[in-house]
Design a protein that fits this description.
This protein is 29% helix and 23% strand. The chain is α/β, with parallel strands linked by helices. The chain folds into two domains: 152 residues, Periplasmic binding protein-like II (D-Maltodextrin-Binding Protein, domain 2); 104 residues, 3-Layer(aba) Sandwich (D-Maltodextrin-Binding Protein, domain 2), CATH 3.40.190.10.
């Protein structure tokens, strides 16, 4: 396999999110004063050239919601989540107003490169194919988990137990690539391993939304649902009497803020003007503790890129 696996129990994954769905702390970490922004760029120079923005005074951020605890929209129509806090803080440091744009995940890169949004923040795993299309500022390390019905009726103890069985995952994700042997896992995915072992390939049920994949498991149409570990933990916390994590999970890999690079191959290109501003703002958040505070709020400190 191109990537190794580590065994993670449902208890460990659940522990990541013990407070992720709970109300936010009564006193949120104080955001740096607006006057601190010039510390990441000369005050005489615009942090982001206005002509580089889709809309003047705004930082348009493409994101695929719902995907709690990264991003979701509450009953009041307000965006919330770890990615949302991150995007709002970055925009504030650039003297801009963040505006989140609902976007389907498998078209989210195209939405950024075509000018629908300035950047994307949507729990996107960095891989070579994506990095050719956009630049990335890594901001968290995240693993992927398998969620099954409580009691694990199909006795899934590892990836090979999924051979010949139905598994749901969201379109355009690393989970789909791993299960089908596409993208970064071209011809080296789980289905190929199953066939080599004389078993049937995985029947991958691809859905447009991550919540649709979870509903496939709820309806008992698949044996497991594959998603990022913090998302799995979120659902265990809210539906712990009905579901559990099972078997092996893909080890952690970096996820990043996606930025248009204005080059044919972003993997070797320098940051664009927006990229430089985003990178500087994020580095300042790392330095002054704001990044740590956001991770702590959403119980994701184990994923810190530090």
């Amino acid at each position: 396999m191109k990537r190794s696996f580590v065994l993670v129990s449902g208890i460990v994954v659940l522990g990541l999110m013990l407070s992720g769905c709970a109300p936010a702390p009564t006193a949120a970490p104080a955001a740096p004063a607006a006057t601190a922004a010039p510390t990441v760029a000369p005050s005489a120079t615009p942090l982001v050239p206005p002509e580089k923005l889709v809309e003047k005074g705004k930082l348009l951020i493409c994101s695929d919601a719902p995907y709690p605890p990264f991003e979701s929209i509450n009953d009041k129509g307000e965006w919330e989540g770890m990615d949302v806090d991150l995007g709002n803080e970055i925009a504030k440091r650039l003297a801009l107003k963040a505006q989140f744009v609902p976007t389907v995940f498998d078209t989210i890169i195209a939405s950024v490169t075509s000018g629908k949004c300035d950047i994307l923040i949507s729990a996107m795993t960095i891989n070579p194919d994506r990095n050719k299309q956009i630049s990335f500022v890594p901001y968290i390390n995240v693993g992927q988990s398998f969620v099954a019905l409580k009691g694990n009726p199909d006795n899934i103890t590892g990836p090979m137990d999924l051979c010949g069985k139905s598994v749901a995952a969201e379109s355009g994700t690393v989970e789909v690539d791993y299960l089908k042997g596409t993208g970064d896992y071209l011809d080296k995915g789980l289905s190929q391993e199953c066939v080599k072992a004389g078993k049937k390939a995985v029947n991958v049920v691809v859905t447009q939304k991550d919540t649709d994949a979870f509903q496939q498991l709820q309806a008992k149409k698949v044996v497991v649902y594959a998603t990022d570990s913090p998302v799995a933990a979120y659902y265990l916390l809210s539906h712990g009497d009905k579901f559990q994590t099972v078997g092996d999970v893909i080890e952690s890999f970096p996820e990043g803020i996606g930025i248009p690079c204005e080059a044919a191959d972003c993997s070797t290109a320098p940051f664009s003007a927006i990229g430089k501003a985003i990178d500087n703002a994020f580095k300042a958040m790392l330095a002054d503790g704001t990044y740590d505070s956001i991770l702590k709020k959403w119980s994701m400190t184990d994923g810190s890129i530090k």
